[in-house]
Amino acid sequence: MANCKITTIPNEFSQAFESVIEMLADIDVHYVELASMWGKNILDLNEEEENKVEKILNEYGTKASAIQTQIMKCHPRNSSHAEPNSKKMHADLEFNLSRIDRAIELAERFNTKNIVTYSYFDRDGITEENWKLLLQDYEGLVDKCKDAGKTMVLENEHDTYVALVDDIQRIMSHFNSPHLRWLFDTGNMFRRVNKFSREDYDKVGKFIGYW
């Protein structure tokens, strides 16, 4: 555990980015996931705002541990909740997928290899057809991250296709790639099943790339 680095998500405290970074530095936490600040998603910042983030991080000796995106956290194409061509991150899957280029650009700028991603919402139920489409969509994302030397860390979210141990094992075993690893969110896991056993760890522990 000596090599573990503690990281946190500033916007879960406040959208006042600098105030949070200062507070974290005061308690010797110097790694953060860049998700949103000043009411904007990290992917939507303009150059001036990016420069401001960089300046604040440098001032407090803080580094980015990951770019926290909403990529793949979207309704499937055949969902009753889908809104094609709307450019809504959670409803327009083609737009959502296109944001990987911006995420890679920001990961490069803020000197992190990690890009946090998700999986389809399960609000219309889970189907094998959509599982196959999810794997197909991830093929393109994995290829782009491989070319860029980046790693997606897929978070198990309680209301998505990749929520449980068997889901994690399925997608990670399918790709078996250093460019797609598992972000183990214990809170989300326990929201669904309220357990994570030694047997579970033996199944999927080797896929953990971020905790």
Q: Strand order across the biggest sheet? A: 1-2-5-6-7-8-9
Choose one word for the global shape.
Answer: globular
Give me the count of strands. 9
**Classification by helices and strands:** alpha/beta
How many helices does DSSP assign? Answer: 8
In helices, the fraction of residues equals 40-55%
CATH architecture of the largest domain: Alpha-Beta Barrel
Classify the beta-strand content into a percent band. 15-25%
Tell me the span between the first and last alpha carbons. Answer: 12 Å
Q: What's the CATH H-level superfamily name of the largest domain? A: Divalent-metal-dependent TIM barrel enzymes
Order of helices and strands: EHEEEHEHHEHEHEHHE
Q: What is the domain tally?
A: 2
> Compute the gyration radius: what is it?
17 Å
Integer average pLDDT: 96
CATH class of the largest domain: Alpha Beta
Largest sheet: 7 strands, parallel
User: The CATH topology of the largest domain is what?
Assistant: TIM Barrel
How would you summarize the topology of this molecule?
Layout: E1 7-8, H1 17-26, E2 31-34, E3 36-37, E4 40-41, H2 47-59, E5 63-68, H3 93-98, H4 100-109, E6 114-117, H5 128-148, E7 151-155, H6 165-175, E8 180-183, H7 186-192, H8 198-204, E9 208-210
Parallel strand pairs: 1-2, 2-5, 5-6, 6-7, 7-8, 8-9
Antiparallel strand pairs: 3-4
Can you walk through the features of this model?
With 211 residues, the protein is of the alpha/beta class. It folds into two domains: 1-67; 69-211, Divalent-metal-dependent TIM barrel enzymes (TIM Barrel, Alpha-Beta Barrel), CATH 3.20.20. The protein has eight helices and nine strands. The chain has helices at residues 17-26, 47-59, 93-98, 100-109, 128-148, 165-175, 186-192, 198-204, and strands spanning 7-8, 31-34, 36-37, 40-41, 63-68, 114-117, 151-155, 180-183, 208-210. The radius of gyration is 17 Å and the shape is globular.
